[in-house]
C-alpha cells in the first residue's frame, strides 16, 4: 500500500490523518520531491481513466494557458502535462492491493478498509 500526492494538499492531509488514526502506516510518495513516473501514470490511467486522474478543478489547471489545456485533450497529452505539472494530478492516489483509488472521502476509505 502506498499513498501518492503533495504533502501540503488539504485533501492529502485529510487522507494521511485518516489512515494514521485508523492504524495504517502507509508510505508516502511526494510528487514534488520524488517525481512522477510515466509508466506509473499510464498504469493508473489504464485503471482509473486519464480523465479522472487529470484534476481540472484545481488552481494549477486554472492557471494553464488555453493551449496547454487543449494539449491535454487525450491520454498522451494528459500524461505529458501530468509529468510536467504533477500538481494537476488528482490527489491523493491510494494504491492498495494493486488497485488505485483517487481522491479522499471518509466514506470511501471506510468502505475500502472496512472501518
Radius of gyration: 14 Å
Portion in helices: 40-55%
The total count of helices amounts to 8
Structural class: alpha+beta
Main sheet strand line-up: 2-1-3-4
User: In total, how many domains does the architecture comprise?
Assistant: 1
Describe this structure in words.
The chain has 115 residues and is of the alpha+beta class. It has a single domain, classed as Glutaredoxin (3-Layer(aba) Sandwich), CATH 3.40.30. The protein is 52% helix and 13% strand. It is built from 8 helices and 4 strands, in the order E-H-E-H-H-H-H-H-H-E-E-H. The chain has helices spanning 10-21, 31-34, 38-48, 50-53, 59-63, 66-71, 75-84, 106-113, and strands spanning 2-5, 28-30, 93-96, 99-102. Strands 2-1-3-4 form a 4-stranded mixed β-sheet. It is globular. The model has no long low-confidence stretch (mean pLDDT 96). Pfam families: ArsC (PF03960). It comes from Thiobacillus sedimenti.
Topology, please?
Elements: E1 2-5, H1 10-21, E2 28-30, H2 31-34, H3 38-48, H4 50-53, H5 59-63, H6 66-71, H7 75-84, E3 93-96, E4 99-102, H8 106-113
Parallel strand pairs: 1-2
Antiparallel strand pairs: 1-3, 3-4
Family: Belongs to the ArsC family.
Pfam family, one: ArsC
Protein name: ArsC family reductase
Brief overview:
This protein has 115 residues and is an alpha+beta fold. The chain has helices spanning 10-21, 31-34, 38-48, 50-53, 59-63, 66-71, 75-84, 106-113; strands at 2-5, 28-30, 93-96, 99-102.
Amino acid at each position: 500500500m502506498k499513498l501518492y500526492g503533495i504533502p501540503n494538499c488539504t485533501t492529502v492531509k485529510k487522507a494521511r490523518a485518516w489512515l494514521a488514526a485508523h492504524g495504517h502506516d502507509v508510505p508516502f510518495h511526494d510528487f514534488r520531491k520524488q517525481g512522477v513516473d510515466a509508466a506509473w501514470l499510464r498504469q493508473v490511467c489504464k485503471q482509473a481513466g486519464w480523465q479522472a486522474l487529470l484534476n481540472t478543478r484545481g488552481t494549477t489547471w486554472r492557471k494553464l494557458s488555453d493551449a496547454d489545456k487543449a494539449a491535454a485533450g487525450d491520454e498522451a497529452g494528459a500524461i505529458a502535462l501530468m509529468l510536467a505539472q504533477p500538481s494537476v494530478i488528482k490527489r491523493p492516489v491510494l494504491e492498495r492491493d494493486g488497485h488505485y483509488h483517487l481522491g479522499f472521502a471518509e466514506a470511501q476509505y471506510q468502505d475500502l478498509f472496512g472501518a
